[in-house]
Amino acid sequence: MSDIRVPSGKVALSTASVYPERTPDAFELAARLGYDGVEIMVGQDPVSQDIEVLERLRDHYEIPILAVHAPCLLVTQRVWGRDPWLKLRRAREAAERLGAQTVVVHPPFRWQRDYARDFEKGLARMREETDVVFAVENMFPLRARGNEVVPYAPDWNPIDFDFPQVTLDLSHTAVSGSDAMEMATKLGDRLAHLHLADGVGTTNKDEHLVPGRGTQPCGPILERLAGNGYQGLVVLEINTRKATSRSERIEDLTEALAFARLHFAASSTAS
Fold it and tell me: Which of the residues 15, 152, 245, 261 could staple to 156 if both were Cys, CB 3.0 to 4.6 A apart?
């Protein structure tokens, strides 16, 4: 006799997944489609930066905010100021006020020398001040004319550094040519946050495909996490920019959630 053991981890929608629609649309679609919550990608959309507006959206749609992605991208260099530590403090404060359990953060860019030099110790100090988890995300090197350029310090890959919580992004593993299953295995309990997306490994292209449309082991990783009793978040962070209509975007978001629900359950056999 077999049964399905559903893990306690939740499946959330990144607000970046609805772009070029905006943050309020992500709340509406997450609630309509049955996601467990949202991850706020703090970006150029003013709503994503405004805690009071986010609180109202959370309460109106009755959809919890489960994570906050700090503004770490090149296009968000001026969001919440230019000081990277100030950005992280504001992200932590936002998470605390909004009831989010995790702040996602990228490794520093190489040119952020002071920030990069103190990154590991600085994050450790911040962890002592809050219950919010800082999960450092794997990124990827860039390749040109046979050469590899790493724009991050201490590295694009946080696995071998002293970060107790890590975000594993399966679109980024495609770009870097990494073995995602090996990374997940090596991380073990340090894998605190999963950005679920897919990719085929196109050079320098961060695709964020709907899971199942690329080459990454999205299903096996979800099944392994479910079997291990994973309690972190699974966040659908997919690219729907090329959707020709809102209906097509909704179809992609629905398919992505269905994939996650299907695989994020462990089949067990009872005698």
Answer: 152
How many helices (H) and strands (E) the chain has is answered by 10, 12
Measured in degrees and rounded to the nearest 5, phi and psi for residue 199 equal -170, 160
Non-local (6+) Cβ contacts of 15 within 8 A are 23, 26, 27, 38, 39, 40, 41, 45, 48
Q: How far apart are CA 176 and CA 129, in angstroms?
A: 33
Beta-strand pair 2-5/266-269? antiparallel
pLDDT in tens, 94-107: 999 999 999 999 99
Asked whether the CA dihedral 176, 92, 42, 197 is positive or negative, the reply is positive
> pLDDT tens across 61-89, in order?
999 999 999 999 999 989 999 999 999 99
On whether the pTM is more than 0.90, the answer is yes
* Phi/psi of residue 189, nearest 5 degrees: -70, -10
pLDDT score recorded for residue 268? 42
CA distance 96 to 178: 33
